[in-house]
Design brief:
- The protein is an alpha+beta fold.
- The chain is built from six helices and nine strands; from the N terminus they run βββααααβαββββαβ.
- The strands form two sheets. It has a six-stranded antiparallel β-sheet with strand order 4-9-5-6-7-8.
């Protein structure tokens, strides 16, 4: 598909889904994000997207459980209230919800964080108004099976590896400020593991603004500590 960047500065979005002759969606969500700089800068427009358009240093890496990327900070829904709350927004607290959207898209569901959030609110799925339940994907889609939540430890890593080998991504809770002691009320952040890479994991991070898998160890690992210590808990679906 040939595309021409708009002339006006700004960030532009395009999302595509393939449909069969019966109108049923299938395959990955294909998308592009185009940033057109202000005229005062000489840098050319930058492109990022997926699948297949990933940022270095992992461009070309074969992912075990590739999932479409969504950002909780996408301006289309960043300021939407999370659940039935009035102060918490998707951009501020919607990391787990956005990970569940990425998992749903991996399973072939057509949705966005805004649509997922609105449907959960309409169905009364949120816990205490704005907490995303562990099994939210199963409540939204009966054909997605919730396989439980597991706490940090080497056994959790073995379970993650097993799911990745089966081509299934895994949601995990990390410390968004690893340079400080972990506080579950302030530092909890959820990312989606999509592949193992040596002794590291590659993740879709909903806090990022552009696609491209990143290193869990580099961004959220604790200096001098085993990688499993950086993962507080994991949620499993199939």
């Amino acid at each position: 598909v040939e595309m021409t960047a708009p002339s006006e500065p700004g960030t532009y979005y395009g999302d595509w889904k393939m449909y069969d002759d019966q109108g049923r969606p299938f395959g990955d969500l294909y998308w592009v994000r185009i940033t057109v700089p202000q005229p005062s800068t000489e840098a050319p427009p930058t492109f990022s997207g997926g699948p297949g358009l990933r940022s270095d240093p992992f461009a070309g890496v074969q992912l075990q459980a590739a999932a479409p990327f969504f950002s909780q900070r996408d301006p289309r829904w960043e300021h939407d209230p999370l659940g039935s709350g009035t102060t918490l927004t998707i951009g501020r607290w919607g990391c787990m919800l956005t990970c569940k959207v990425m998992y749903a898209a991996y399973k072939g569901k057509t949705t966005t964080p805004r649509e997922f959030n609105n449907t959960m609110r309409q169905r009364g799925i949120f816990f205490e108004g704005y907490f995303t339940p562990w099994n939210a994907c199963s409540q939204m889609y009966p054909d997605i099976i919730y396989d439980g939540r597991y706490q940090s430890g080497p056994a959790l890593m073995e379970r993650i590896d097993n799911y990745l080998q089966r081509g299934i991504p895994v949601m995990v809770n990390v410390d968004i400020t690893p340079q400080n002691a972990y506080n579950s009320d302030l530092d909890q952040h959820w990312v989606l593991i999509v592949s193992k890479h040596g002794d590291d994991y590659l993740i879709n991070d909903p806090a990022a603004m552009a696609s491209g898998v990143i290193s869990l160890r580099d961004k959220y690992g604790y200096d001098g500590q085993p990688l499993w210590k950086a993962i507080q808990q994991g949620i499993f679906y199939r």
